[in-house]
Design brief:
There is one protein chain. This protein is of the alpha/beta class. It has one domain: TIM Barrel. The protein contains twelve helices and 13 strands. The strands form three sheets. Strands 2-3-4-5-6-7-8-9 form an eight-stranded parallel β-sheet, sandwiched between helices. Strands 1-10-13 form a three-stranded antiparallel β-sheet, with helices on one face. The protein has a two-stranded antiparallel ribbon with strand order 11-12. The longest helix is centred in the middle third of the chain and has 16 residues. The protein is globular. The protein starts with a strand and ends with a strand. The structure holds N-carbamoyl-L-aspartate (NCD) and zinc ion. N-carbamoyl-L-aspartate (NCD) binds next to loops.
Length: 347
């Protein structure tokens, strides 16, 4: 007996596409299922000006295979030198959809991020005025703070003061990994959203560390203990419009992951939607997948829900996903949930 679910085409509200050979290899994996995605600007060097964003958008569109319909929603990487007028202009022109805040040193390619939050106050005020949202990587970088506590401490030390200092700024707390993140989003108004990744709904820190270290489960923010995964599952499947999908699909080639100092990032673009159908079915919330993957995000960003649809089907035999995606720079391993998944995307 096959079962199916048709939803408006989903969007990915946090995606890493990289550049060059990796961009060309991973872009079809997203464009096959998603209509739009918020494109992370943490290239080397980062996408910091409107001119950088325009050039990167052109490279993405040039890499899109014929016949695929996909719109990249560009972001700028906030630095202490960002010009408020450049941001406001790029947003008004529709060139950028959001600005990304990385605390300096928090994650992959974040060296140009913010150290002194007072130095970006003018940009944040211009964004609040222009209605341009801020996407936030919510982890402190203080070496004294345990890596498993960095999100919770960030809320108290940085995020809450920043939001109070800039009323009216719309903020997305991205890839939340803790009950603290869920509770903070719930305790605020609709001006604060929270994205949740596919992998954080599936793995906890045991998956990463028990029985041998699993480099392909290492990402930032790092997976936390089981009670936090349960809180994320409850939030994602709750129907609360402040929570929506941002996969944080972050390709690194195998040699860079399977190393003495492996890169952070899980690559989930290929199988995210079947995995989400599996998770939402487990939580008896299949009817809420549409909100999480297709309508809450557009609602937050003030964009229309996609008119095209996507159909997920469940069959009696497990779906075979590719183990790896080949790129001109080497293979990228596809996230393995560690259990059989019977859902797939039709067509
Ligand atoms: C991301 C990357 O590889 O660019 N890695 C990750 O683990 N999520 C950076 C990020 O979003 O933190
Ligand atoms: Zn990311």
């Amino acid at each position: 007996m096959s079962q199916s679910l048709t939803i408006p085409r989903p969007d990915d509200w946090h995606l890493h596409l990289r550049d060059g050979a990796v961009l060309r290899a991973v872009l079809p994996e997203t464009a096959r299922h998603f209509a739009r995605a918020i494109i992370m600007p943490n290239l080397v060097p980062p996408v910091v000006t409107a001119a950088d964003a325009r050039a990167y958008r052109d490279r993405i569109m040039a890499a899109l295979p014929e016949g695929m319909d996909f719109t990249p929603l560009m972001t700028l990487y906030l630095t202490e030198d960002t010009d408020p007028a450049d941001v406001a202009r790029a947003h008004a022109e529709g060139l950028i959809t959001a600005v990304k805040l990385y605390p300096a040193g928090a994650t992959t390619n974040s060296a140009s991020g913010v150290r002194d939050f007072d130095r970006v106050r003018g940009v944040l005020e211009a964004m609040a005025e222009a209605g341009c949202p801020l996407c936030v990587h919510g982890e402190v970088t203080d070496p004294e703070i345990d890596i498993f506590d960095r999100e919770a401490v960030f809320i108290d030390r940085v995020l809450d003061p920043l939001r109070r200092a800039t009323p009216g700024l719309r903020v997305i707390m991205e890839h939340i990994t803790t009950r603290n993140g869920v509770d903070y989003v719930k305790a605020n108004d609709a001006g604060l959203g929270g994205t949740i990744t596919t992998h954080h709904l599936i793995i906890n820190r045991n998956h990463l560390l028990v029985g041998g270290i699993k480099p392909h489960y290492y990402c930032l923010p790092v997976a936390k203990r089981e009670e936090h995964r349960q809180a994320l599952r409850a939030a994602a499947t709750s129907g609360d419009a402040r929570f929506f999908l941002g996969t944080d699909s972050a390709p690194h080639t195998d040699p860079n992951k399977e190393s003495a100092c492996g890169c952070a990032g899980c690559f989930t673009a290929t199988n995210t939607l079947p995995l989400l159908a599996h998770v939402f079915e487990e939580e008896r919330a299949l009817d809420r997948l549409e909100g999480f993957a297709s309508s809450h995000g557009p609602g937050f960003y003030g964009l229309p829900v996609n008119a095209r649809t996507l159909t997920l089907v469940k069959s009696d035999t497990p779906t075979q996903f590719p183990d790896k995606i080949d790129t001109g720079d080497g293979p990228v391993t596809v996230f393995d949930p560690g259990f059989p998944v019977y859902w797939s995307v039709a067509g």
